[in-house]
Amino acid sequence: PIPLIIDTDPGADDVIAILLALSARDRLDVKALTTVAGNVQLRYTARNARMVREWANRPDVPVYAGCSRPMLRTPIYAAEVHGAEGVTGVKIFEPKQPLAKGSAVQYLIETLLAAPPKSITIVTLGPQTNLAMALIENPEIRQGIKEIIMMGGAHFNGGNITPSAEFNVFADPHAADVIFKSGLPLTVIPLDVTHKMLTSPERIDRLRKIGNNAGKIAADILDAYVEHDIKEYGLPGGPVHDATTIGYLLKPEMFKGRMVNVEVDTREGPTFGATIVDYYHTTKKPENARWITEGDTQGFFDLLTVQLAKLP
Ligand code: BDR
Ligand code: CA
What we know:
- This protein is α/β, with parallel strands linked by helices and 312 residues long.
- It is 38% helix and 17% strand.
- The protein has twelve helices and ten strands.
- The chain has helices at residues 12-23, 42-55, 79-82, 104-114, 129-137, 167-171, 173-180, 191-194, 201-208, 213-233, 241-250, 297-308, and strands at 2-8, 28-35, 63-65, 120-124, 145-151, 186-189, 255-260, 262-264, 275-277, 289-295.
- It has an eight-stranded mixed sheet with strand order 3-2-1-4-5-6-10-7, with helices on both faces.
- Beta-D-ribofuranose is lined by residues 11, 13-14, 39, 78, 81, 125-126, 151, 160, 166-168, 241-242.
- GO terms for molecular function: purine nucleosidase activity; uridine nucleosidase activity.
- This is Inosine-uridine preferring nucleoside hydrolase family protein.
């Protein structure tokens, strides 16, 4: 199985992503969930990650809390999309199992230093503050990283939080800048693809019809969460952004993209937090990311349905 650390800010779609990852025990060795402030404050994202661990009955997966705010910018949240405490559509509870001791940043540093060379895949599903801070504190952690797969950014699609910026990058552009400049192998799942891979009432219904708790939770969350993007953005269904990254890990053949140069706009102004993607190689700047633009939507929802059936 692929050794994996999931850095996340649950977050409705983060929950679906984590459930999907934890369902694939034979393929993904989830070492830890590291949490960060993003969709809501850190105290909620860390608590929500612990709720998901309990839903999936995976006491073996530690949950760490990391950075409580972005590197430089004023904190922003997305409670209007995900609910005041970050998970809409389900009953919130206080999970029994506590957080792991120590900060997520420290965990990343220690784990990546001790890991065999190029062995660990890191998936980032929120603002990239934790990983950026870890790379700044100890650049030698690079040695343990096989690749980074991030949900974030937008090019062809335009932004979802400003006309030009996607939420995760906008919420900490300086952190994203560190990641894009790191030279580490990087795959980006931007809005360009996630806004094409939408739920439908039928797709959500299939999750509910699995008949287990995980399917019901996923369906309840999606029913509530998709409303925002359908109403506010006029999309025909809801994107399950973060879960798409795990779909990519499990079945990369369902996706298409190309190597490009990406820069993050960290200047104040209307394009603050935008990802500038040199899709046609006009600048001849070195490629630093694989930018995904196409995905097999039905294949993804089929996979999600099959996988969630493996959970309690
Ligand atoms: C991203 O922003 C968050 O609100 C979602 O959880 C996802 O990670 C989509 O832009
Ligand atoms: Ca997220």
